[in-house]
Amino acid sequence: MIKIENLTKKFGAHISLDSVSCEFNKNESIALMGANGAGKTTLIRSILGYYHADAGSVSINGRDPIKHRVEVLKEISFVPQLPPPIKLNIEELMHYISISANVDKDKIMHYANEMKLDLATNMKKSFFKLSGGMKQKLLIAISLAKKSDIIIYDEPTANLDPKARDDFYRLLKQNEDEKVLLFVTHRLEEVKDLVNRQIYMDLGKVVSDEKF
Amino acid sequence: MKNLYLIAYLDLKESLRAKWFVVYSLVFGGLIALFFIAGVTESQVMGFSGLSRLLLMYIQITIVILPIFILITTVRSISGDRDNHILEYMLSFPISLKQYYWGKIIGRFITVYLPVLFAMVIAIIYGAFKGADIPWNIFFLYTGLLFAMSSAFLGIAFFISSFVKSSEVALGIAFFIWIFLLAFIDIALISLMMQNRFNEELIIFIAMINPMEIFRVAAISLFDPELTVMGPVAFYILDSMCQGIFVLVSIAYPLFIGLLFAFLGYKIFEKKDLV
Ligand SMILES: Nc1ncnc2c1ncn2[C@@H]1O[C@H](COP(=O)(O)OP(=O)(O)OP(=O)(O)O)[C@@H](O)[C@H]1O
Ligand SMILES: [Mg+2]
User: Fold this and answer.
1) CB–CB contact A50 B88 (8 Å)
2) Distance (Å, whole) CA B196 – CA B194
3) Ligand 2 midpoint to CA B178 (Å)
4) Contact yes or no for A84 and B89 at CB 8 A
5) What is the CATH number of the domain that holds A139?
6) What ipTM score was computed for the predicted complex, to two decimals?
7) What is the residue range of A159's domain?
8) Nearest CA to ligand 1 atom 26
9) A204 CA: nearest ligand 1 atom
10) What total number of domains does chain A contain?
């Protein structure tokens, strides 16, 4: 599904991705790990088509994520490392997502409920005024409501309390079939039950890749 | 298309809630109110009277402050969203970059144009209510001029926003462009003319490539040249050009500038990393 070939991305003189090659296929749940600054986020952003690579290529179901961004992004759910300070209120944000990505608002409500996030009383609140954990819960609910073949999470549990983490992993377990689940994490023990492949990155390279 | 409207609509809604928009509307609405309170419509100075005089004063002030308002509020729109990772999330949904960029521009255009237009419409309505004659030709000319002016500076602002790295630099560039168009070109022109070294055509040409100068001249172009106190540049231009053509140019040229810069901005936006 996702094919990365000799991907190199530099920022000035700094090489963030150094000729990375790997493939992610259906029914794989991958824990992507590595020290701070290893290049995990850079790799994910390249998959999403945000970066113009210095060399190499990314293809998703055979398509270039920059040239065919709309088709590619239809297949991807994504939660970023830091929830952005979006000024839209929740109602507007949900409107944006339901129209642009054809996501059912009731589904978002449903998953928000499952994550113990009370949306109904917060609909008119600006997204950035929610607490850190509430923001993440909402982004997770949206990512689950959007039916995609590829789910990408860049450390989504940083601000979640233990209870919310359990809810999250439970929901994910229910939703990982027939998909690619790419999961950046620093805590392997938490996602052990969930993943069937581990990738370690360091200094912009994949240093180990195990399936089990 | 639906995504284009979606982006424009949401940007509009977001702007309408923003504090800068309140200030912005109050400034232009307040200007009109102030003119009425000061009795501008009743005075008879230098041949202008009533609403014509009020509209002229309004547009002369607007020409100075509208560009800087537009530049300051818009110059950070794309670069700001990129800096604080809003783009990273919002663009993870299947929306084309074209729709996102032009949707933002359309939304912003409506936000900046409507208040200045409304202020003028209110002046007309209130003036008519008080029994003044309505100078329709001036009103329509100014509607067009404000439209062209908004697009010119919005285009420039989005252009800057597409490549600039930090918000401070964006503001600095915006401020420089404003001061440059507002003052330096005029000062340079006047000194050229005083030295009498250049021919008229060259001076007119230099003046005419500056959209701000065009607006200034266009704003008084419908008045009798004998009566108006206009700068020497304006006099040269109006003296040597047919009025109709000049009015057309004064609207078409800034519109073109705005679209050109907006388009260049889009090309840069498309070519650069999104986060
Ligand atoms: N936009 C950018 N400009 C300059 N350097 C960047 C940029 N984005 C990332 N980098 C650099 O690339 C390297 C990899 O960053 P990346 O964000 O991919 O790390 P990461 O593995 O996600 O780390 P973390 O675990 O801290 O999130 C870092 O050294 C970082 O400084
Ligand atoms: Mg990261």
Assistant:
1) yes
2) 5
3) 40
4) yes
5) 3.40.50.300
6) 0.95
7) 2-211
8) A36
9) 14
10) 1
